[in-house]
Amino acid sequence: MSRNLYKLLTYVSLFVFLACQATTGEGNKLSGASTEFEHVSEQILKNPDIDSLYAWRADQLMLRESYDSAITDFLKALSIDSLKKPAYYFGLSRAYLMSAQSKMASDILDKALEKFPEHIPTLLKVAEMKLVLKQYMPALAILDKVFQRDQQHVEAWYLSGHVFYEMGDTGRAINAYQKSVDLNPEFRKAWIQLGDVLTEIKNERALDYYDNAIKLDSLDPQVYHSKAYALLRLGKRQTAVNLFKKLAINFPSYEPGIYNLGLLYLESDSLSKAIEHFGICIQLKPTEPSSYFQRALAYIRKGDKNLAKTDLQNALRLNPDFEGAKQELSKL
Predict the structure, then answer these.
(1) 275 contacts 298 by C-beta, under 8 angstroms
(2) Please, where in the chain does CATH 1.25.40.10 lie?
(3) Could you give the dihedral angle defined by the CA atoms of residues 244, 248, 254 and 257, in that order, rounded to the nearest 10 degrees?
(4) In this structure, what DSSP letter does residue 117 have?
(5) Which of 231, 195, 236, 233 is nearest to 213 (CA)?
(6) Is the pLDDT of residue 228 over 50?
(7) In the prediction, which pLDDT does 21 show?
(8) Which of 96-105, 177-186, 284-293 has the least mean pLDDT?
């Protein structure tokens, strides 16, 4: 399927739970040297009853996408200490979820909640899991327990916004996100979320919310991308084009912005510029079939059928089920 939408990214996601950081804090970045990993493995052989060593290695295995091995290490860490480290349950749950074992992921968090019923981070993780599983009312019930302990909990209000959004209650979602930034004006991801939701309902306040996020971090290309998309939704096409151009200049390796600028050029029959920008996308991300497909469409309009055919064949090589590419190729 072609990427034919301008907005390729969204901050509203059922996989809030799958944020790409280590869950236990034992190993929060992938070691640059395999010797460190090997050293910890050697320490485990010498000291098989130290839970933190297994947790550290499990975090590293998660970053390496070795989920089954991570599960084994998290289970071992929990077998040594299941009463003091809720983060081990979080890590194990995430490992199960990443290996497509959602029931096991949910069950392990329920066990964590039994052991740590007053622990707010555990309550939040359980609520996130309920959200992932689309169990919205149970998620809200868990969040109510957080609010009973702390009415001013910023993350809980933010997560409530996600739940309401996924339930289709845009008004309550906006109110929850707004509450989180009222409590913490520097809570950047809530400003972004407000911008995204208001963009959907074509409310111009979205632009102000994106600007607030940009003030907090001007080096994140995704926010400029979201703002440019909002401008398109609001009918401010030329301003959006200008922002996409600025995005491409300031963040030349940010492929989604260049791709969307290519789409805008293609729509306006600026075919040479469209071809140029899709070519840059292919250089940045050569395994993405939609860039070849869109460049092929530009070549077709220019009458360069041979070049179009090559791009369509490349798109199908990368994705044999790409129906749009099949149809266009059959016409040549």
Answers:
(1) yes
(2) 9-116, 252-332
(3) 20
(4) T
(5) 195
(6) yes
(7) 45
(8) 96-105
Angstrom distances, CA of residue 167 to CA of 9, 53, 219, 267: 20, 41, 32, 34
Q: What is the pTM of this model?
A: 0.81
- The C-alpha atoms of residue 267 and residue 301 are separated, in whole angstroms, by 11
| H or E element at residue 269 | none
Which one has a higher pLDDT value, 255 or 87?
Answer: 255
Task: State the Cα–Cα distance between residues 27 and 90, nearest whole angstrom.
Answer: 14
CA distance from start to end of the chain = 20
Task: Return the amino acid letter for 120.
Answer: I
Give the closest residue to 166 by CA, choosing from 132, 116, 209, 199: 132
Mean pLDDT of 70-82: 89
Tokens coding 177: 């996100």
Measured torsion, CA atoms of residues 63, 69, 75, 79, in degrees rounded to the nearest 10:
-110
Map residue 254 onto helix, strand or coil: coil
Mean pLDDT of 195-210: 96
Q: What's the CATH superfamily of 252-332?
A: Tetratricopeptide repeat domain (1.25.40.10)
Under 8 Å CB-to-CB from 160, ≥6 apart: which residues? 140, 143, 176
Kindly report, residue by residue over 78-111, the tens digit of the pLDDT: 899 877 788 898 889 889 988 889 889 889 888 8
CA distances from 266 to 191, 250, 253, 286, 298 (A): 32, 22, 20, 20, 7
The correct answer on CATH 1.25.40.10 for the domain covering 9-116 is yes
